[in-house]
């Protein structure tokens, strides 16, 4: 069994993330989607809880026809010690052989820990960028075409758009 790890915060899970999942699944038998900063929520940078992000991801994968039996979605809290983060992650996840990442720090950490790292294509990172999408949500601008339909629906159902706007109001 050849298994990969795809770490991210997924705040929110967008079409770029979905494309990385599909790309990664072409290379492995199973994929672990690591929901990082699991302890964070209700802030401008991390508005959604780990549980909400897991639901977003599962809904989007199901909607896309991805076989969920090939996927693990695991929340992992931060430890703020980069030199042991790869080991920390490995204590939460099943064994994996390859890491899919574009973040230079994540790449460095996992390479130093002895893991193979593959860098996915950027999939239009200018547009598919969680910071940008959160800004569009706050501004009441059109963000729905940047996330899977299931994610858009879920965020509206949990009033995540309103939460983000209220958080910004309290952060002033």
Automatic annotation (TrEMBL):
Annotated ranges, domain Cytidyltransferase-like: 5-135
Species of provenance: Sulfolobus tengchongensis
Catalytic activity: beta-nicotinamide D-ribonucleotide + ATP + H(+) = diphosphate + NAD(+)
EC code(s) of this entry: 2.7.7.1
Keyword Oxidoreductase (UniProt): no
InterPro entries with a match to the protein in the record: Cyt_trans-like, NMN_Atrans_arc, Rossmann-like_a/b/a_fold
Domain of life: Archaea
Main location: cytoplasm
Pathway connected to this protein: Cofactor biosynthesis; NAD(+) biosynthesis; NAD(+) from nicotinamide D-ribonucleotide: step 1/1
Pfam annotation, one family: CTP_transf_like
Family: Belongs to the archaeal NMN adenylyltransferase family.
Gene3D superfamilies referenced in this protein's UniProt entry, alphabetically: HUPs
The keyword Nucleotide-binding is assigned to this record: yes
Sample GO molecular function, one term: nicotinamide-nucleotide adenylyltransferase activity
BP term (GO), one: NAD+ biosynthetic process
Protein name: Nicotinamide-nucleotide adenylyltransferase
GO cellular component: cytoplasm
Compartment(s): Cytoplasm
Keywords from the named record: ATP-binding, Cytoplasm, NAD, Nucleotide-binding, Nucleotidyltransferase, Pyridine nucleotide biosynthesis, Transferase
């Amino acid at each position: 069994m050849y298994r990969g790890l795809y770490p991210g915060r997924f705040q929110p899970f967008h079409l770029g993330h979905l494309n990385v999942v599909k790309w990664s699944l072409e290379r492995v038998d199973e994929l672990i989607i690591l929901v990082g900063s699991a302890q964070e929520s209700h802030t401008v940078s991390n508005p959604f809880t780990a549980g909400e992000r897991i639901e977003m991801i599962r809904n989007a994968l199901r909607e896309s026809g991805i076989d969920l039996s090939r996927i693990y979605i695991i929340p992992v809290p931060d430890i703020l010690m980069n030199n042991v983060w790869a080991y920390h992650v490995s204590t939460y996840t099943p064994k994996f052989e390859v890491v899919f990442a574009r973040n230079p720090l994540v790449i460095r950490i996992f390479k130093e820990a002895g893991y193979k790292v593959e860098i996915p294509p950027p999939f239009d990172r200018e547009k598919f960028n969680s910071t940008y999408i959160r800004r569009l949500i706050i501004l009441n601008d059109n963000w729905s075409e940047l996330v899977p339909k299931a994610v858009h629906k879920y965020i509206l159902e949990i009033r995540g758009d309103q939460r983000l706007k209220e958080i910004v109001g309290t952060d002033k």
